[in-house]
Every structure is written in structure tokens, then in C-alpha cells.
Amino acid sequence: MTDTTARNQRGEWRPEMPIGLPPIFAWPPQPGAVGKWFFGFPGYLLPLNAFWFAVAVLTWAFLTPELSTMASVEPGWIAWLLVRNAGLVLAVFGGLHLYLYIRRGQGDHLKFSTEPLATNSRRFLFKNQVRDNMFRSMVYAVPVVTGFEAVTYWGFANGYLGWFDISDPALFWAWFIALAILCPVIHSAHFYLGHRLLHTAWLYKKVHALHHRNVEVGPWSGLAMHPLEHVIYFSTTMVQWALALHPVNALYQLQFAVFNAAMSHTGFQKVMVGETLPIDSNSYFHYLHHQFFECNYGGTIVPLDKIFGTHHDGTKEAQIAMRERLAAMRRARA
């Protein structure tokens, strides 16, 4: 695919600015825009959120042991979850990397930077960014994901989770669907709070700085973290421990965190499926965080960055405002 996008002298491409918030936050209300955003293609539900939900349902139905067999902690079913999760991560993260960076399926079209991923760099294990990122994803992230998933099933199987007693099937499924729809909202809010925590001085230096070695990013960068950061990041699943009536809600929350990490670190604004089907990753918002560090800690679905003054919409005005905010913080600490 030929790159037809305009780039500056440094080879950078930027999507249309400014990065706005979804129309659900518009005032006065815009019901038409909200409906189009929620039900449209692309929109809130389609294609990605609905696709990841379908993956969770299929994973539960065909790739997960019977819940009753997970009431006791046994190596067999935990090992199965570990192998299955490794396969899913390899398929999604590896598939995106293969398409975008090895086969270069869409060239540099909609790619933020033409800078290559780092090789021969002491910042990374094996002096190679991709190998470093793969190692940290497969060796560190996958076991942490599996741990959260195993505790989830054990808790549901033993009646420690699924606290609400809703006997009416209609109310049960209404709650199930509501939690599925809210999954990205929960993820966005939790990600902002956990991310701000990771940017406190001690945690940043000891933990989160490892992830920020990835200035230019690729799909494997999404889970290239310190193991403690994996625990913080995937603890979003614990929200569903408190709310969910069915393990699938918790599985979707966990898998959404896994797969969203790949999509938000592609380095591309959209992943093109053929010439006509763009899958919007909305990753420029997070890409700006990797570029400037002290902005865009969350997402746009829950506007906590906007509320707390850390929203960078990609414009020159936002860049100036960010510099002034950081300068004021340095003066306050002096």
C-alpha cells in the first residue's frame, strides 16, 4: 500500500487535530451524533469492542475448562490456561507485527513515524526492541494474565465471586450485557488511575520507566512492562470480581486489557484490512504519551485527562499548555 499521507520534514504524520472527546460529553446533547458514535461503523461497539467480546465468548465456550473442574487448584487446568493465553497473545500481537512491520501490509500509510523500531540498543534486552518486547510479553505478561484468570474461575467455582443473587433471567442478562458494554469504560478509568500511580517518582523510576524505553512503539510494546506494572494494569479484572454475575464478564475485561494494549501501540492510527476496511486503533492519543510522558494517561472514553488538565489533543496550543503546566510543577517543587 502506497503512503499517500502528508508528512513533515522529520517524516512524521499526524491525524486530524484536535483529538476530541466522544459526543456523549457534548453540551447541549447531540443524540444523533451519540447514536452514530455508539452504533455506527466504526463506532463504540463496532468493530473492535464487539469483536473482542466475541473472542471472549468463544474463548469461554471452546477453550476454557468446565467451571466446576476449576473449584480446586490443580496444575493441569492452570497450565492449559497458560498455554492458551500464550497462543492468543502470539496470534494477536504477532499477527499485527507480522502484517504491519514485517510484511508491511500497509507500508507507512497512517503510520505516525517512519523511524524504525530500535536495534543494537542497550536500552533493550538482546539490544533489540522487538525481541525485548516479545520476551517481556510472553515470559512476564502471560503468566500474570493467567494468574488473574485462574483466580477468577476458582472464585466463581467456589461461590466467592458472583455475589449478587439475581434469579430473574431477564435481569441477569440485562446486567450481563450492561457490564459488557461498560467494559471499555471500566478499562479507561482504571487505566488512568493506575497510570497516574505509575508516574509517581518511585514507581516510575523502578517500574514504569521500563515501558517508556519504547519511544517509537509497535504491537509488542503494549505489554512490554515490569511484572509489577502487569499486576497493576491487569487488576482492572478485579472490578468485575465485584460486579460480575458470570465469569465471561471478567474474562472480557481481562482480554480487553490484553488486546487493547496491542492496538494502542501499533504506531498506526488505523489498521487497514484490504483497501477499504479501516480498523481505527485510536492510538495517537497514547502515542503522544510515549512522546511527551506527562500527558494522556488514560483514554478519551472517560475524560479524566480533560478533568485533571493532562489532556493533550495534539495541537501546538496543547503542547505549550503542557510545557507551562510542567514548568509550574517544577517551580512548586523548588
Protein architecture, described:
The protein is an all-alpha fold. It has one domain. 54% of the residues lie in helices and 2% in strands. It has helices at 31-39, 48-62, 75-102, 129-157, 169-198, 201-206, 227-234, 237-243, 247-263, 284-292, 304-307, 316-333; strands at residues 270-273, 277-280. It has a two-stranded antiparallel sheet with strand order 1-2. A hairpin with a 3-residue loop joins β1 and β2 (277-280).
Count, helices: 12
Based on helices, strands and strand pairing, what is the structural class?
A: mainly alpha
Tell me the quaternary state.
Answer: single chain
Mean pLDDT: 94
Fraction of residues in H or I helices: 40-55%
Key features of this structure:
globular; 334 residues; mainly alpha; two-stranded antiparallel sheet; 12 helices
Q: Would you kindly provide a brief summary of this structure?
A:
This protein has helices at residues 31-39, 48-62, 75-102, 129-157, 169-198, 201-206, 227-234, 237-243, 247-263, 284-292, 304-307, 316-333, and strands spanning 270-273, 277-280. The chain is mainly alpha-helical and 334 residues long. Helix 4 (129-157) packs across helix 7 (227-234).
Task: Show the helix and strand layout.
Blueprint: H1 31-39, H2 48-62, H3 75-102, H4 129-157, H5 169-198, H6 201-206, H7 227-234, H8 237-243, H9 247-263, E1 270-273, E2 277-280, H10 284-292, H11 304-307, H12 316-333
Antiparallel strand pairs: 1-2
Helix pairs in contact: 2-9, 3-4, 4-7, 4-9, 5-9, 8-9
